[in-house]
User: What shape does this take?
Amino acid sequence: MVKVFVKNEGGDEPRFPFLRGILTRSLQDAGLTFDEAYALAKTVRDKFSDSAEVATAELREIVLKYISQYGPAAIQRYQHPANELGAILVHDPDGRTWLFSRERHRQVLVSSGLPYEDAMTVTSAIFRHLTKKGVTVIPSRQLGFLIYRYLRITRGAEAARRYLVLVNYLRGKRPLVLMIGGAPGTGKSALATELAQRLEIVRIQSTDLLREVMRMMIPERLIPVLHRSSYDAWKARPGGGADAEAHLIDEYKAQAELLMVPCEAVVRRSLHEEASLILEGVHVQHALIDKVTPDTNAIVIPIMLAVIDPAHLKDRFKNRGANLNRRRAERYLENFDSIWRLQSYLLSEADRWQTQIVISSEKEQVVKDAMAIIIDRLSCEPVPKPEELFS
Assistant: This one.
């Protein structure tokens, strides 16, 4: 795909690359949900896939054409974000200032465990309260305390407490390491992406990518098990006696053990830089937690994804073939029995180590369940009183 650059009409100012993430954020500020904004930004990017450059005016015209389906209010907010009627600027103690975004605010409330409809109601009430009082600029801490008090009065102490826990993490300096495991097709990458956005985590590492790097460095003739998929690693060393399932698990464990070193290195590098990280992949295992937790201040949360209906998992592989790589999907289906046995082993290990298991079904429910686990774990850490956190 050609890299697209945006240029101003005058031509004197330097051009800059088209960034889908920036457009996504602008569309969210216009009132679109993240999924709507991301899909629209991708459509716009694909529109110019064969162009080397696009003028700013042309880009805005295309965006306005697509955003019109969301109504005149969305168009107005996109065209005049800084001058929107009732716009409220929020600034924090570090000197950063941003426009109060109702969509992002709703997402924080939903992430803390509030039902979506309640989050919409609370956000609208807070915005109306501030605009009615003529507030145009507000400190972030004052806004946070206002939201906390409103939640406590209208939604109860538990909703307010969970909001407090999430805000404390988002404002804190302590790194968070999420380890998301699961068999192929359980939705690890999708969950990691969604959680990264909600928890403001910029680093996501896939164990599959680490395995690809190792494959480039180590020839197949030296370590054949490394050059197989997790569910058919046993084919690298045929045999294993009468117990085929034990052989499959032994070779998966051998492959996972090889991945332990780069996984540990990635985690330790993030912790050294005091940066949060999401590590996801079929090779995520409990032994890694023991290697990184003794001498670190990080909060480490393992989560195991599972699809408990075989037909549902098969449908996921078929959908992958329709949307992405058909050949890869066919390989999954051909090896489905091995994948199912591998998942059984992963779930038994999760149960043995008391790792929280999330049943992977509808996307929003999976994210909600995972966020509930994360909030519960963060609740075990000391949380300041509201007056202290928002002072």
Summary: The radius of gyration is 24 Å. DSSP finds 17 helices and eleven strands in the chain. Residues 269 and 275 are 9 Å apart (CA to CA).
